[in-house]
Amino acid sequence: MISIDARQKLIEIVGPVNFDDTKVGLLVYSYDATPQFQAMPDAVIAPKYGGDFKCTYTL
Predict the structure, then answer these.
(1) Phi and psi (nearest 5°) for 20?
(2) Of residues 48, 59, 42, 41, the one with CA closest to residue 15
(3) Is 38 helix (H, G, I), strand (E, B) or coil?
(4) Alpha helices in the chain (DSSP H)
(5) Spatial separation of the C-alpha atoms in residues 7 and 33, rounded to whole Å
(6) What are the φ and ψ backbone dihedral angles of 57, each rounded to 5 degrees?
(7) What is the pLDDT of residues 24-46, one digit of tens each?
(8) Cβ proximity of 9 and 59 under 8 Å
(9) Coil, strand or helix: which one is 32?
(10) SS3 category, 19
(11) What is the pLDDT of residue 16?
(12) DSSP code of residue 29
């Protein structure tokens, strides 16, 4: 589970529109084409700019 502090920092970096931790949003990103593999993420972020991604990576 993601901490409240980390959640808030991510939202500050990418903005609330580009952050999702709803059950539906997490379910969408919980699987890919790998057979019989599913893992629920703690959060989904969609950085709009490369600088946003760099900031989330170093967080």
Answers:
(1) -140, 125
(2) 48
(3) strand
(4) 4-14, 23-28, 50-58
(5) 28
(6) -70, -40
(7) 999 988 887 788 888 899 999 88
(8) yes
(9) coil
(10) strand
(11) 93
(12) T
